[in-house]
Amino acid sequence: MKILYINSLYPPLVKGGAELSLQLIVEGMQSLGHEVVVASLHPEQTLITDRVNRVRVIRVPLKNAYWPYRDVKTSALSRLSWHIRDRRNAAMGKVLGQIIKKERPDLVSCHNLAGWSVAAWDEAEAAGIPIVQVLHDFYLLCPNSNMNRGGTPCEKQCLSCQVLRSGHAHASAKLSAVVGISQSILSRFGSYGYFPKAKKQVIYNIRSVSAAQAPKLREPGQKLTVGYLGTISRVKGVEWLIRQFQELEIPASLKIAGKGHEHTVSTLRGLAKKGDVEFVGYVQPQQFLSQLDVLVVPSLWEEPLGMVAIEALAGAVPVVTSGKGGLSESVQHELNGLICPPEQPESLGQSLRRLYEDTELYNRLSAAAPASVAHFLDKNRLISEYDQIYRSVSLSTSPTV
């Protein structure tokens, strides 16, 4: 089977975990004998083809007002203009149509479509090729891909999202199958009427991590090292974490790793005046996690999956989390971590205090953590599940004789 993968970026151009997960999928399918090719975007002005680990990658110039993956602030008017064109970018569709005509794939696997837009669906359907859409984020519901506005999570689509995504749910009827990286994200799209005719399946992303670590053992009265790893922003719950941490009256330190908007980081630094709080900037994830007793993932928005929690648990580090979105599918309350609802703000501090005081509970959570996420880290499982859904779509759409 020949599979054409479509994504905004492809390594070495990486914006987030979606690109890393896609690379594992693509190379895995190639290892099974499928012919694979990737169509992605790049900031240059000419189309180029290169190879990454023997995978052929077609890198296409973006036909829109600007390249959105630079750390350059643009005006609200420019962003609106970009998103209006990205609602259904006919120019990008035309380029993709030419690629499809030349490559003649048996199946198109769409991932993050920012820049390409749902014009990708139009072109694949016009060529009579089945489409599998993989949901890594909320792009198809929200132009910003994250369903939050000004740092506040959106419970439903705002008016601008409704306008800029009008017709998308109807267009999604063209798809043969849809894969969610969690049940949470798949269900959320379903609640908006997306993918009415598609086969639906959850396939969890994976991360490459070191071998399972030995359980961490705490002694009574031992200082608790608490950590946060990720984007430093309000919607990620970092402010909530800092405020709760500073109310603790136990021997503890808080290490905050990651980057964020300069103003946001400055504001949070100013808030963290009490207690042992350190902003450590960029870190190597596994090295950082190995220094912690507890990882806190206090997201206020619906995380599509929350891979950082899985990485921590794989390293025998219990996780305290809000449980929003896909986080509740990896962190299990009182099995490998604790869930504290944002609607009960004091629950976060109470959870940290509980792990400090109850060493028996802590040691049990740490011991159970690696095995509890083993299936998330199984590369063979990921490749097999994608192979199965691709084959099922191909068989169901093959012409009968």
Automatic annotation (TrEMBL):
Residues 16-205 form the Glycosyltransferase subfamily 4-like N-terminal domain. This is Glycosyltransferase family 4 protein. It comes from Algoriphagus oliviformis. It holds the Pfam family Glycos_transf_1. The lineage of its organism: Bacteria, Pseudomonadati, Bacteroidota, Cytophagia, Cytophagales. Residues 213-369 form the Glycosyl transferase family domain. SUPFAM superfamilies: UDP-Glycosyltransferase/glycogen phosphorylase.
